[in-house]
Design a protein that fits this description.
This protein has 728 residues and is an alpha/beta fold. The chain is built from 34 helices and 17 strands. β3, α5 and β4 form a beta-alpha-beta unit.
């Protein structure tokens, strides 16, 4: 089907939408649709995809059917189209949110040929009654929005999307325009193949968004870091993504009690609340939306200034699309992701029980995400490479560019890696090749007898992680590529063969080492929400020493080192703030805290230090009642074995909880239990040791007192007694 358009397209653009010029590829895409061609559009979020089917729908005879998975976005787009017209009937949507009366009105407008644009959810399209009805109307073309949903390799796979082509054939053939903001070459091929449009006109826009800043942070005190960031950016709109609905609810509430106008948004909420929260965000009654990664938010808001990922997403495509919601107006857009390998392990667990093929795909996509998070290469270069686009120069606007790691020479390693790919006939993925180079034997290596290759273990002085990083940089340098049909198989391409013929210097940056922590976990020594103020830390240690001499107590009884480090990061200047420091409870704060907060206050004033605004991250309520139950059980003199069994804890885990309770300043009397397992003489010997000890180390105590006479548990029990009695 084609149509003749006499007036210039720019004139129609001005008439219907009020714009003077097209953006990027919009005009050539629209001409392709108007001349009746199948058209494939790859355009990043914010590039103006919607206009590519909205304008042609107004100029062509009949109704354009837009298949979209985002019910929330349908309403926005229909409202938007109606604002350009004198009649509401010009655009409609058909989905499960409509009443029978509303559906009758939609059908009436369609039959009267009033409607130019009909948005349909894929689930609605597959209903036989709708198929039968749509056969009765004239269709100008079909637009498949969010087309990546077709591909199992896409980040938002929807099985019903794979039925679109057969249904189109049943309703009546017409040209198709498929649109997506994120698609790797593999996903693009899948989309075109499934929609039977391999001969389509293909229009790819650059994935580069110059205004977006990308950063990955280790996941240490992530909630506190997010609060601090938002409070330092007052009034700015932002989205925070979490993996689970529970975390969305918790984090939204924590942000609210800390004075941030935040609302939750996830698929488990009733649709009225969800719509209300979305509208409040759009109308700027809320600054922040906390949403699940799994739920595609149809939020078309141009001035989102930050997108934060509390949890790392399942795929780079998902991540790119979500970060693409920042700075759509061309203004500031900061994209910050918190990363811990534990999150990846959680995602891998979620995949267990799914079909093997699905697990394989999921695992491969996760590997790409890990590679992105841990790599020290320019972030946009990595992202663009993933989507099949080459970016020549670093962006100078991401964490890796602004804080570069030292480069090392890798010419010989690159030659070795490329030769290994050739040795295995270019039939294996990066993970397998890295295992061969590092000399790791697993079932796959054994089954292919690759441990018998001469090249096996040739790079064993470096680990698999290093070889994986090198192969990623070989991809970016265009020495190798990934086979589109067999996702992940490494093939050497022209530049790679050139390099093997004439090797030249090849410098690479080593990957980041991220601590394995969670939001409550402690960082490595000196970690926390920022760098430790070494000068203040030393002042606090000197003060602790002075007090310990005066009270004749070991320094660690007063405050342990991690508590002093946290003080040298957070700068608490009153007793209330001191209680938010790691390992400091109300009792300890009031017993020892005054001199510490006074000295910190003087230091802050003298140095004119601007403290973080979120000194006190208020908790919603303490969701964990475990510590309270342990304290109550000990008060009732229940044996520690029974407490551990009741709480489903190992004895080691229970002792850790008790140590945390005592170190925070709560007094516990476990003498009733210690008297059962240790005689008085042994108790006294350990107690006296800690009275003189320079550290609280269990190992030091065992070395001094003798491992043949005492167990680690004995020492820990008496240390708890000592800390409780002497520290309170």
């Amino acid at each position: 089907m084609s149509t003749e358009v006499d007036v210039s397209l720019t004139g129609y653009l001005k008439k219907y939408f009020g714009f003077d010029t097209f953006k990027g590829n919009q005009e050539v895409i629209i001409r392709s649709v108007l001349t009746g061609n199948d058209t494939f559009v790859l355009m990043p979020t914010g590039g103006g995809k919607s206009l590519c089917y909205q304008l042609p729908s107004l100029l062509m005879d009949g109704t354009a059917i837009v298949i979209s998975p985002l019910i929330a976005l349908m309403k926005n787009q229909v409202d938007s189209m109606r604002s350009f017209s004198t009649t509401d009937g010009i655009a409609h949507f058909m989905n499960s949110s409509l009443t029978k009366l509303q559906i009758d009105k939609v059908k009436s407008d369609l039959l009267a040929q009033v409607t130019k644009l009909l948005y349909v959810a894929p689930e609605s399209l597959t209903k036989q009654e709708n198929i039968d009805f749509l056969k009765r109307i004239r269709i100008s073309f079909y637009a498949v929005d969010e087309a990546h949903c077709i591909s199992e390799w896409g980040h938002d796979f929807r099985p019903e999307y794979r039925r679109i082509r057969p249904i189109i054939n049943e309703i009546g053939a017409a040209p198709i325009i498929a649109l997506t903001a994120t698609a790797t070459p593999k996903v693009q091929h899948d989309i075109q193949k499934n929609l039977d449009m391999l001969d389509a006109n293909v229009f790819k826009s650059s994935f580069r968004r110059h205004n977006l800043y990308y950063e990955v942070r280790p996941k240490v005190n992530a909630t506190k870091e997010i609060i601090k960031y938002i409070l330092n950016n007052p009034g700015k709109s932002g989205i925070v993504y979490c993996l689970s609905r529970k975390k969305v609810e918790e984090l939204a509430e924590t942000l609210r009690v800390n004075g941030i106008k935040a609302l939750p948004y996830h698929a488990g909420m009733d649709s009225a609340t969800r719509t209300q929260n979305q509208d409040k965000f759009l109308m700027e009654e809320a600054d922040v939306i906390v949403a699940t990664i799994a739920f595609g938010m149809g939020i078309d808001k141009p001035d989102v200034r930050f997108v934060i990922h509390y949890d790392i997403p399942k795929s780079l495509e998902g991540y790119y699309q979500e970060t693409g919601r920042a700075g759509r107006d061309g203004g500031e857009g900061r994209c910050i992701a918190f990363y811990s390998y534990q999150d990846i392990q959680k995602l891998e667990k979620f995949m267990q029980g799914k079909p093997v093929a699905e697990q394989e795909i999921g695992k491969q996509l996760l590997l790409e995400t890990v590679a992105y998070a841990e790599s020290s290469v320019c972030r946009p270069i990595q992202l663009l490479n993933y989507f099949g686009e080459v970016m020549e120069e670093p962006c100078d606007n991401c964490d890796n560019c602004l804080h570069p790691k030292e480069k090392v020479e890798a010419k010989e390693d690159m030659i070795l890696a490329l030769n290994t790919i050739l040795e295995v006939k270019e039939k294996f993925k990066a993970e397998h090749v890295a295992n061969i180079l590092a000399g790791n034997i697993n079932s796959a290596i054994k089954s292919y007898k690759h441990h018998k290759l001469i090249i096996f273990g040739a790079g064993s002085e470096k680990d698999k992680k290093y070889w994986n990083a090198l192969l990623r940089q070989a991809l970016i340098a265009q020495f190798i590529t990934k086979d589109i049909e067999n996702y992940g198989l490494l093939k050497i391409i022209r530049n790679g063969y050139e390099f093997l013929k004439n090797p030249v210097s090849f410098m690479i940056t080593q990957d980041h080492e991220f601590d394995i922590t969670d939001d409550q976990g402690a960082a490595a020594p000196g970690g926390g929400t920022g760098a430790v103020d070494e000068e203040l830390f030393q002042i606090l240690k000197d003060l602790r020493k002075k007090i310990s001499k005066k009270l004749n107590l070991p320094p660690f009884v007063i405050f342990q080192d991690p508590s002093l480090e946290d003080m040298a990061i957070q700068y608490p200047i009153n007793l209330e703030e001191l209680q938010n420091i790691q390992g400091v409870g109300a009792g300890k704060a009031h017993r020892y805290g005054k001199e510490f907060v006074d000295i910190i206050k003087t230091y802050v004033e003298e140095k004119e230090i601007i403290r973080p605004q979120d000194m006190v991250v208020k908790s919603v309520v303490n969701k964990s009642t475990l510590k309270v139950n342990i304290i109550q059980s000990i008060d009732r003199k229940i044996s520690l074995e029974d407490i551990a069994a009741a709480k489903d804890l190992e004895m080691n885990e229970l002792l850790k909880e008790i140590e945390a309770i005592v170190n925070s300043g709560t007094k516990l009397n476990i003498n009733y239990y210690i008297n059962e397992v240790l005689d008085e003489e042994h108790q006294q010997e350990i107690y006296d040791y800690f009275r003189e000890a320079k550290t609280e180390s269990i190992q030091d105590a065992l070395n001094e007192l003798g491992e043949d006479e005492y167990t680690e548990e004995d020492i820990r029990l008496v240390r708890i007694k000592f800390m409780s009695e002497m520290g309170h």
